[in-house]
Each structure stands twice: as structure tokens, then as C-alpha cells.
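Morning!

This is the sequence you dropped in the shared folder:
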Amino acid sequence: MKVDQNALKFNQASIILLLVLAFILNAAWLVAFVAAVMLVGTLWPEAGLFKQIYAKGLKPAGLLKPNVVDDDPQPHLFAQGLGGIFLVLSAAALWLGAPVVGWALAATVIVLASLNLFLGFCLGCFIYYQLGRVGLKPALPSWQPARVKK
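The structure's back. C-alpha cells below.
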């Protein structure tokens, strides 16, 4: 299977940027928006907003070049889904009047996305593989590998 690493990096950078902006603006709705984008992109990878911006805007314009490598997309989707769940909980906490909990959950996603973007370590992918080692393989029928165009 193939994965465009630059699409993943653009996804991570978009998540970080929007969540930092959400914190600066104290905008729970923006946290919820990022959560929705992440969860939709997990359940229906081809519909992911950040992936679409990359594939239909930045890549054709030559602003970002593909870096397609042999990789399994499922651990990345699992990690994205976990991040989306954390952000749903974050937005709920913010709306329910628990800003410390809400922003701590959002900050966790920012830190983990940054760790992946800047150091290449994906904690969600690590968890996915550890679950597989003990016989649990998280999968959904819609998590079929997306065709990556060069």
C-alpha cells in the first residue's frame, strides 16, 4: 500500500494551526469543526477536508510535492480517529463549562500532532500496532486503503 507522507504532514499542520487558533479565539466551535473533519476523514478517507485541500489545491499548484512511500494507511486513520474523539470530548467539555479539561484535551492533540509532524513519531500508530500485538486489530469496513495518485 502507498501513503503520501506530505498529505499526512499537511493534515497534521492543519490540525495544529486550527487548534491553536481555536485556543487564541476561545472558539469551541472550531475545536468541534476540527473534530468533525478528523472523524469524517477517518470514516471516509477520500472525503477528508485537509486531504482534499492538499490533493486539489496545493499539490496541483506545485506548492507541495507528493512523497509517496510504502506504508499502511490504517494506523494513520486509527490515530486520526483517536484525535477526533479527543476533540469531541474537548468541545463537549468547553461547552459544558470545563475549559481546563477542554483545552487540555485539545492541547494533547496539538502536542501529539506536533510530535508526528516534527519528529515522525505517531503515538496513535504505535497504539494501533500494540493492539495488534495482543490480538486486537481495530478496523472498519470503510478503512480500505485509498488510492494515492502520484
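Headline: Residues 141-150 have pLDDT under 50 and may be disordered.

More detail when I'm at my desk.
O.
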